[in-house]
Amino acid sequence: MATFDNYDPKQVIVAFRGIELLGYAEGTFVVAERLEDAFSMEVGSQGDITRVRSRNRTGSITVTLMAGSAVNDSLSAIATSDELTGLGYGSAIVKDLNGNTLVTAAQAWIRKVPNVEYAGDSRGSREWVFDCAELVVNVGGAVV
After folding, report:
1. Which of 26, 51, 105, 119 could serve as 92's disulfide partner, Cβ 3.0–4.6 Å?
2. What pLDDT digit, counting tens, does each position of 97-125 carry?
3. Residues 7/98, Cβ–Cβ less than 8 Å
4. Mind listing the domains of the chain with CATH numbers?
C-alpha cells in the first residue's frame, strides 16, 4: 500500500525568544543544522580505523523572511540590543505540526543582521541566522 500524507507550510512553527516568526519567503524558508558531524573517521597507514566522536552539538537555524515581514523589526531590535548589552540570546524552536520533527535550542542568538538587498522585480527577502549553543534535533515523520 502506498503511503500518503499532507504538508502545509503554515503548520511549520518557528519562534525565537517567544516571538513567532511570520512572513516566510517563497521557497526554502527554514534550515536547521548541526555545525559538525557527530562522528568522523581516522584511517591509519595499515588500514586500521578509529571512529571519533565529536561532542560539538552547536548548530544554526536559518530563517528566510519576506522583506516586508513585521518580524524583521522585532529581530532588528533584538540584534541591536544584543550588540549593546550582550543579552539578546534566548530559546529557539522549529516545530513541524504536520509531523514529529522538532528542533530546539535553549540558548540561541542572532549571528548578525541580514544583508539588505532589493531587486527590480521583487522586494526581496531577509535571511536571519541564529547560532545555537546546543541544537537538539529530532527528525520525525509525518502524522497521518
Report:
1. 105
2. 999 999 999 999 999 999 998 888 888 89
3. yes
4. 9-138 (2.30.110)
